[in-house]
């Protein structure tokens, strides 16, 4: 499949819903917009990580619940299901990955790399969700599953190297 060019910046910046779906403009990156979108999630994570776990999960849930609406709107506006520039799903997936993660930059980097690995690799059933579930929910679902896989891997890593947590 040919790589889709990003839409005009004016279009994204002029519509608040597109601006959010495009990760505050990070999805306009000409290459690897998903990685840039995940990078935008890092400061958001650092902002909410010190909160009690219940508050963290509530805020992550708000990001997740807004996702189908924002991603669906962007897909309809662009006329493309899951345009690569739509990165709100990466932001949500990274927040899933980092739930209850140990504090410290090594864990942020590990979570980032694990999430990107599962999001790009798309092992079962991620590839099925990516391929067969449509609409805003479908755009979100594969990244939420990738986030869950990365969360499991990060939790396992924490148990393997507990002195570093």
Automatic annotation (TrEMBL):
One function term, GO molecular function aspect: phosphatidylglycerophosphatase activity
Top-level class of the enzyme under EC nomenclature: hydrolase
CDD domains: PgpA (cd06971)
A single BP term in Gene Ontology: phospholipid catabolic process
Locations listed in the record: Cell inner membrane
Protein name as annotated: Phosphatidylglycerophosphatase A
Cell inner membrane among keywords: yes
TM regions (residue ranges): 53-71, 91-115, 135-154
The protein's annotated pathway: Phospholipid metabolism; phosphatidylglycerol biosynthesis; phosphatidylglycerol from CDP-diacylglycerol: step 2/2
């Amino acid at each position: 499949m040919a790589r889709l060019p990003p839409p005009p910046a004016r279009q994204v910046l002029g519509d608040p819903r597109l601006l959010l779906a495009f990760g505050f403009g990070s999805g306009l990156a000409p290459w690897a917009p998903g990685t840039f979108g995940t990078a935008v999630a890092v400061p958001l994570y650092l902002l909410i990580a010190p909160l009690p776990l219940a508050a963290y999960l509530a805020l992550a849930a708000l990001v997740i619940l807004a996702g189908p609406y924002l991603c669906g709107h962007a897909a309809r506006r662009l006329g493309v299901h899951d345009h690569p520039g739509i990165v709100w799903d990466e932001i949500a997936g990274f927040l899933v990955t980092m739930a209850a993660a140990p504090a410290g930059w090594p864990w942020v980097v590990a979570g980032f790399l694990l999430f990107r690995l599962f999001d790009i690799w798309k092992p079962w059933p991620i590839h099925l969700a990516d391929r067969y579930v449509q609409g805003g929910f479908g755009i979100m679902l594969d990244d939420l599953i990738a986030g869950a896989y990365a969360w499991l891997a990060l939790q396992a890593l924490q148990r393997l190297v507990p002195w570093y947590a």
